[in-house]
Write a structure and sequence with these properties.
35% helix; 3-stranded antiparallel beta sheet; alpha+beta; Integrase_catalytic; Tyr recombinase domain-containing protein; globular; two-stranded antiparallel sheet; single chain
Length: 132
């Protein structure tokens, strides 16, 4: 269990800007760039990394004119939910492939073969440089 001393401190505004600038290319149709979109989706939705990496095209749904991510499974029972898609993520939705995973180039890894394993490791290495 983490103690308050070990807990991650929130990023400053400058550090957050640096994180969002890690990858400037949003990607191409059918292949959104993970390091560009993952921090933005997490920031605007509150979703966990593995939830985002596990999203498929069928998980983008719409009701009453509102697009949302349908989270069919997760870490806990309360993880099953719908998350409205922020208007700032419209460009992401337009880049998503019409079927399959939203980030098709992510390779599962680690002992539990999560789609977020390698990108999480890479993101952690990149943010260590930002944090100092």
């Amino acid at each position: 269990m983490k103690t308050p001393k070990d807990a991650n401190a929130p990023w400053s505004s400058e550090a957050l800007k640096a994180v969002l600038a890690l990858e400037s290319s949003p990607g191409t149709p059918g292949e959104p760039t993970p390091l560009h979109w993952l921090p933005r989706i997490a920031l605007l939705s509150g979703m966990r990394l593995n939830e985002i990496c596990s999203l498929e095209a069928v998980d983008i749904q719409e009701a009453d004119g509102v697009r949302y991510f349908n989270i069919p499974a997760g870490k806990t029972e309360s993880s099953v939910r719908v998350v409205p898609i922020h208007s700032s993520l419209q460009a992401f939705v337009e880049l998503c492939p019409p079927s399959g995973f939203l980030f098709p180039n992510l390779t599962p890894g680690g002992p539990d073969r999560k789609r977020s394993w390698y990108i999480g490791r890479d993101f952690g290495r990149s943010t260590k440089q930002i944090e100092g």
